[in-house]
Amino acid sequence: MNTIIHRAGTRGHSDHGWLNSYHSFSFAGYHNPERVRFGLLRVLNDDVVEAGMGFGKHPHDNMEIISIPLGGTLSHKDSAGRSEVIKTNDVQIMSAGSGIFHSEMNASSTEEVNFLQIWIFPKDKNIAPRYEQKTFDPAARVNQWQVVVSPDEKDGGIWINQDAWFSLAKLEAGKSLSYKQNITTNGVYLFVLEGEVKVNDQNLYKRDGMGIVGADVIGITANKNAELLVMEIPMN
């Protein structure tokens, strides 16, 4: 089993005034040759956008883009004519495929929005662009995994064009969970949203990330109340 730990304080950082962004992997003006990606996970950005501000219309292609609001509300518009609002406990996925333009703005004129922007390389290129979002019950992730993204919607998550699974959990202090991989050759990237957990005798804190390769089952214990995102991703 191989592991890598990315402490919250070692992430790349950019502050544009209206946007305060932390980058777990190289992005825009932040380049770290040792942190370009984890397998097919290319971008994990922790973004805070000021009230009334946001990302204007811009293009994407051949990338799976997942947005997970952690607080506040996002407004999404795209060149396919969609206009959606994405709230806390929603998960949005956009398969950019052969090409799409979109914008993401803070839907509030008074409160900031904090959301994760995640990019995954696709399994099949140049598919028709596709958009989906779904609201998930936070009570259904207490001390258990709640699948929110998966290649088969029968798992309960929204569909992704990749053999990848995203799962959320709210783990109470002293409780433990095991994560069993769906595909043994995949890797797992664990991101601590809140609190403190122990994984393989390593303590992880808020916004720490840990990549794990070669472990079929991963044991996690909450030292304090914790919220977790686990991303199981092909390594090549």
Keywords:
236 residues, mainly beta, Jelly Rolls, seven-stranded mixed β-sheet, seven-stranded antiparallel β-sheet, 55% strand, globular
CATH topology of the largest domain: Jelly Rolls
For the record, what CATH class of the largest domain applies? Mainly Beta
**Order of helices and strands, N to C?**
EEEEEEEEEEEEEEEEEEEEEE
Instruction: Based on the coordinates given, report the CATH architecture of the largest domain.
Output: Sandwich
Q: What is the terminal-to-terminal distance? A: 17 Å
Structural class assignment = mainly beta
User: How many H/I helices?
Assistant: 0
Strand order of the largest sheet: 1-20-17-22-15-13-14
Poorly predicted ranges: none
User: What is the domain total for the residues?
Assistant: 2
Largest sheet: 7 strands, mixed
Overall outline: globular
Mean pLDDT comes to 96
What fraction strand? over 45%
The CATH homologous superfamily name of the largest domain equals Jelly Rolls
How would you describe what is shown here?
The chain is mainly beta. It has two domains: 12-123, Jelly Rolls (Sandwich); 138-233, Jelly Rolls (Sandwich), CATH 2.60.120. It is built from no helices and 22 strands. The strands form four sheets. A seven-stranded mixed beta sheet has the order 1-20-17-22-15-13-14, with no helix packed on it. The protein has a seven-stranded antiparallel beta sheet with strand order 2-3-4-11-6-9-12, with no helix packed on it. It is globular, with a radius of gyration of 17 Å. The relative contact order is 0.18.
